[in-house]
Description:
single chain; 8 helices
Amino acid sequence: MAEMDERYLNVNRYGVLDIPGPLWLAMAFLGRHWVLLIITLASRRSPDAIQLASSSLSAAVLLFEMPVLILAYAGFSRHPSTGAILRFIWRNGRAILAATAVINLGLLAWFLWHADVWRRPELLLASFGLLDVAIVYGIYKSAYIKQVFMEFPEPVEPGGKPS
């Protein structure tokens, strides 16, 4: 007899699967330039951090990673009163994560192609590309993650009853 995956028992107060920690980490990693920007803004007293962020962040990269931030917001907003747009975004979360990873890989390939020499920073970035691939593989291989993205609390009617 096949054993039941106990992760399916981890539900929140609305009766839908909790978002697992590794999925939150994957979203943070795929939105890594936003995380860097937030850390830089939080440490605004450090001129080194500001110089690092200004030299490595571009508006285009931040724009490409914006859907992951919106997806994370949709993940935090998983309750019955959430609107249809965030529900749509959450249902398409795997595609959003995969598209962001592909864009990151494209930007990484362009950067590495134009790098004269591969030293530690370039090798670190190449390892980030491997992690992007691993995230995409994981979110499409896991039936559990697929189920997490399919679940959202039922909307509430204006009278207070679930529809």
